[in-house]
Amino acid sequence: MEESEYLAGRIRELSNKAYQNEYVTHTEFLSASEIAAVYEIMAKQGIPTGVNVCNGVSFCLYGGWEEADRNVLCFLPSYLDEESFCLQEAADPQVVSCIRVRPVNARFADDLIHRDYLGALMNMGIERDKIGDILAIRGSADAYIFVMKDIAPVICTELIRIRHTSVRCEEVLPGECNIRPEFEEIEGSVASERLDAVLAFVYRLSRAQAQQLIEAQDVFVDGRCAFSGGYDLKPGARVSVRGHGKFQYEGTGGTSRKGRLFAKVKLYK
Question: How far is residue 27's CA from residue 3's CA, in Å, rounded to a whole number?
Fold first, then answer.
């Protein structure tokens, strides 16, 4: 079964359950590409962008913090709106748990990065869709990991070592996570909002070099491989480039005398 067919069936099943039984239903964590596929399915069903109602049921994306890359698609009962659901989760998580990871002895801890935490979790046999965002403190072994509620007790009990570092884990409220990704705001002029033009601006490449990255299938927009440099980026689009990093396109504001657009991006460190 293709991904889109599976997602369409899952959306139908979960929305019907929420409608009939009046309780919250949800998927596991979805990647950016899966979320994009969800909205494509909604569009095919005639649901306009920004109207978060499917089969008579309100839905929202929730990843534990405001800028999550990986999110759970939640379908809400009639007595609960998105704001109330998020407040409820913040006070008493029932869908997504936040786990704080700290070294047992900080003096002898490795400098751990995202893939170290993810690798340790997957070596435990935990499926990728059970794991959300991992926010780590640069140059330390401290991190916050968002996971599905049902798997949190297992992680807190069994995750005791990452690489050569002994760690302790505890479940905390999402609001206790005070780590945010570091980024640099970059502004400059571009000929257009085309993907190849913005790539060239952000990474100081020629348009030809930017196009080569796209042709090599090294560029992803909102989790999906970009096949054309002629694609116009929309504000909020998240772009990742193998070997270069990732950025969020913030849009444009005004034009120069020569008709070039002033663009702004968040370049993640």
Answer: 14
Q: Looking at this protein, which amino acid is placed at residue 154?
A: V
CB atoms within 10 A of CB 231: 17
CATH number of residue 62's parent domain: 3.30.1370
Question: How far is the CA of 148 from the CAs of 33, 94, 133, in angstroms?
Answer: 19, 9, 11
Mean pLDDT of 230-245: 92
Q: 156 and 188, same structural domain?
A: no
Instruction: Please identify, among 176, 210, 244, the residue that sits at the C-terminal boundary of a domain.
Output: 176
The answer to whether 29 and 72 are in contact (CB under 8 A) is yes
* Average of per-residue pLDDT values in the chain: 93
- Are 170 and 194 in a shared domain? no
**What is the count of structural domains for the chain?**
3
- State the average pLDDT over residues 172-182: 92
Give pTM, 2 decimals: 0.85
Contacts with 33 (C-beta within 8 Å, 6 or more apart), sequence order: 220, 222, 223, 224
Give dist(CA 203, CA 218) in Å, integer: 14
Asked which of 150, 176, 202 is the last residue of a domain, the reply is 176
C-alpha to C-alpha distance for 112 and 123, rounded to whole angstroms: 16
| pLDDT score recorded for residue 1 | 53
- Residue 135 is part of which domain span? 96-176
* 137 in the same domain as 212: no
83 & 8 share domain: yes
> For the residues of 83-134, what is the DSSP string, one character each?
HHHHHHHHHS-SSEEEEEEEESSGGG-----HHHHHHHHHHTT--GGGEEEE
Beta-carbon contacts of residue 112 (< 8 Å; ≥ 6 apart): 136, 140, 141, 143, 162, 163, 165
